[in-house]
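Morning - adenosine monophosphate inputs below, output right after.
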Amino acid sequence: MKQNDFFSLSLSKELLAVAQDLGFEKLTPIQAESLPHLLAGKDLIGQSKTGSGKTAAFALPILEKIKVSERQLQALILCPTRELATQVVGEIRKLGRAHQGLQVLSLVGGQPGREQAEALANGVHIAVGTPGRVLDLITRRRIDLDGIATLVLDEADKMLDMGFEEEMNAIVRELPQKRQTVLFSATFPASIQAISKRYQKNPVQVTISEDEASSIEQYVYDSENEHKVGTLMRILQQHPANSTVVFFNTKASVKEVSDLLTEQNVPCGSLHGDLEQRERDTVMTMFRNGSYRILLATDVAARGLDIKNLELVVNFDLPSQPEVYIHRIGRTGRAGEKGVAVTIAHPRDSLKLLEIETATGSKFKRQALGFKNQHGLGKSLKEAPMQTLSISGGRKDKLRPGDILGALTGEAGGLKAEDVGKIEIHDKYSYVAISAPMAKTAFERLRAGRIKGQKFQIKII
Ligand code: AMP
C-alpha cells in the first residue's frame, strides 16, 4: 500500500501549503503511484482518466523544478483538445499560485497566433497546447525550446485518435534530448506502446487500481431499438442526477432525441459536430451553471470537455469499442466520488457487453426498470435549478462579474446573492445563471436598469 499523504512527498512547503489550501487532503491513487517517480525525475507512462487527479500528478513535479527567475520555457504539455488545454492551464495556475510571476500559456487554435507569439517572446515558463498550433509556432520559430526539461503528453491515445501523430513526432524531434517525458493515456493500445518506446527512457508504468475503477456503478438495460427513447426517459427517472451526459454514436440521433425531450419540456443541451464554437460554448456554460441537467453528445463533440462531478453517464448507443466505453464512463466517479454509468443495449449485444466487462474488469448490474410516473414524466426532469440570462456586453465593455452581481443585488435589482449563480464574462457578451424561480424577475430588472451605467440587451436563453 502506497502512502497517500501529501506530506509523504518531497514537495516544497509552498506547494504543500497550496495543496492544503485547495482542500486536497489525500493523494488520489494515480498521484500516490506516480508522484514519487515523477519527483525523482523519471519518465512515466500512466493510465489515467479525467477526474483521477492526473493533472496535479504531472503539474506538481513541474512546479517543483521550475525556475521562475529564468524567463524561459521549461515545460511543454500537449493535449488533444482546446478544452482540455484550457482546463490544464487552469489547474496549473491554481497549483502555481505561490509561484510569484509564473507565466502559464495556452497555445491552441481559434485564438490569434500573433498574440501567443508575443506572449512567448515576453517569457513563458509553462506552455500547454494542441499539437497543431504548437508545431505551427515551432515552424515559425516563435518558441525557444532549448530550456524544456519536461514534456507531457496528456490523453495521448486521444491525440493519436485525432490524427496528431505526425505533429507529435515533429515536435518531439525539436526538443532537447535530456528531458523528462511523461505520458498519460486512458488506454494502452500498441500505438501508444510504440510512442512510449520512441520518446521515453526506461519509463515507470502506472495503472489504475481496481478500487478506483469500481467507484463507478455500471448498469445495463435491454431495449429494442424502437423503444430506446422511452427506456432513456425511465433511466433518467430511476437514476436521478444533477448532471447527466447521454452519449450517442451519431449526431442524427442526438438531434432526434433532443427534439423529443424538448417536446416533452425536458431542458437539455446538445453537442454535435455541426455546432459553431460559440454555440458549443453556450451549451457548456448552461450545463455547467445548472440551466441544463442533461447534455446529449456524440463522442467527438464531447472530447476533452471540462465537466466536473458528472453524476450519471448514459450510453444511449453501445459504443463500437470498449475503449470508447471507458472514455465515456470515465467522466463520472471522479476523484473518489461515486459515479453511475448506465448502458442501453440490444438483446443481441451480449458479446459486446462481455468484451466491455473484460476490458473494464468489472461486471454490469442488471435490474428491472421501474414504471414510475407512467402518466408523464417526473416533475424533476422538467425543472432545471437555474436559468441563464445573456447580456450583450463583456470584457470589451469593461464588465466584471461584480458589476453584474451588483446590478442584480443592488437596490434596483433587489435579488438575493444566493439567487445568482455562475457569472461568465466573454469578450463581447456575458452569461449569468439565476435560480429558476427568480429568472424572470432578474430579466425584467436588468432590462429596465443599467449595468455599470450602461444599457445592454438582455435575453433569457
Ligand atoms: P483531473 O483528473 O486532473 O482533471 O482532476 C480532477 C479534479 O480533482 C480537479 O478539480 C483537481 O483540482 C482535483 N484534485 C486533484 N488532486 C486532488 C486531490 N489529491 N484531492 C482532491 N482533489 C483533487
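Note: The two ends are 50 Å apart (CA to CA).

O.
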